[in-house]
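Page 42, continued from yesterday. The earlier attempt failed because a stray header line got pasted into the input along with the sequence. Redoing it now with the clean sequence only.
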Amino acid sequence: MFVGFGLTLLAAVLIFYRPTDAQFVLLAYIFLIGGFIISNIGAGAASKWRREPRPDQALAKALKGLDNRHRLYNYLLPAEHVLLTPMGIKVFQVRRIAGDISCNGDKWSHKRGVLAFLRFAAEEQLGNPTRDIQRDLKLMQEFLDKNLEGVQVPMQGLILFAHPAARLTLTNPSVPVLTNDEVKPYLRKELTQAAKLDADTYDDLADLFDSVEGAEETSEPEPEPAAKRTTRAKGAKTGKK
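This time it went through. Structure tokens are written below.
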């Protein structure tokens, strides 16, 4: 951001110093445009960490109320947001974007107004959540193969749109796409339908993920009924880059 501000200031100085010199004016416009772009890109990168709720906070809030068998790890593992569940591993991509968002298969688009377009670089970008999920799943599989050789774990990618003003139009998405209100019902339904991990595999995964340095609790999960309580009681974890 500061580099962008410096280029913009330099452009103003050049125009003031040589307002009639075509070369100086052209150079000033180049600095002005470059400064605008760099400033917005810097603001966009900063907004990931400064604008609240951050992606990890939005995800933790959407998952609040799940029992303590669901363990959330933010910014600790090869994928940014990983949820260990009784059925396996869920890898999340989180978007905090408002407006009209459409997905057709693996192709995404986001309609913007004129003002939103002018400040596009300062805002969180849609990108391609499907491609990002596929990358994260690959990284997580490599991590598991390296640290838990021979252990087969079901793993699924999920895309969460956390902004309440996100309007989704979905046509055959290859990865499940959810809103805040849909995440917990989706996971709870799976609890009744999908095969569960055996206790040793679940414990091995929890021990591996917990061993990553920088973990700290971020929320307290809803307690389970006493008859179903497991030996583990830790909740969501996060690491800060």
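Notes: The chain has seven helices and ten strands.
Reminder to self: strip header lines before submitting.
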